[in-house]
Amino acid sequence: MPAQTIPARIRWAVDFMDVQPADNILEIGCGPGAAAELICSRLVTGKLFAIDRSESGVDRTKRRCAEHVESGRLTVRQIDLATLRVPVKRLTKVFSFNVNLFWVRSCAEEVALLHERVLPGGAVYLFYEAARPEQVPEIIRGASAALTEGGFRVFVVDSKQPSVVGIVGKR
After folding, report:
1. Which of 24, 56, 100, 131 is deepest in the core (most CB within 10 A)?
2. Cα separation of 103 and 119, whole Å?
């Protein structure tokens, strides 16, 4: 799939995350692979580990990003965050877009797992496009609380796009 089919909200989120060539990144909920395509294009020695609970999401990401999978820059797995096992303190960044886990229910175990595995100075980037603008405050409240309770320093990023917001947790 050509890069120009990547939605503006995904481009903004990946640009904001400021991917560096040596970053080791976890993407939660890779879906169709648009963010994975952008992230991998910026990595040189770094790697992206993309997960999704959906088999179709994993398959679409693998197809879209086949060259990155073949190069070893991208690994894609069908798994949920709660059962994920990655080496401790090896991630520089964690990325997700529209993963409701962080604002719709208790996710203390998942956030604790991220806190253990993100390097000091690293960050968790949670981006959302709300179905309705009035949902934005609820999303910010829920995701911010989850990250704060998990030991992250949190700030909110305004995308300047209607209903699109970012919540960043720094370790």
Report:
1. 24
2. 23
Look up residue 94 and give its two tokens: 């964690």
Q: What is the mean pLDDT of the chain?
A: 93
- C-alpha 145/C-alpha 154 separation (Å) is 9
Closest among 99, 36, 82 to 62, alpha carbons compared: 36
- Indicate if the pLDDT at residue 171 is higher than 70: yes
CA 136: distance to chain centroid?
18
CA distance readout (Å), 114 to 18, 25, 93, 106, 149: 19, 11, 10, 14, 12
What is the set of domains in the chain, with CATH numbers?
Answer: 3-170 (3.40.50.150)
Residue 117 sits at φ, ψ, to 5 deg, of -105, -10
What pLDDT sits at residue 144?
97
Exposed, middle or buried by CB within 10 Å (0-12, 13-18, 19+), for 109?
Answer: exposed
- Residue 123: phi and psi, rounded to 5, are -155, 160
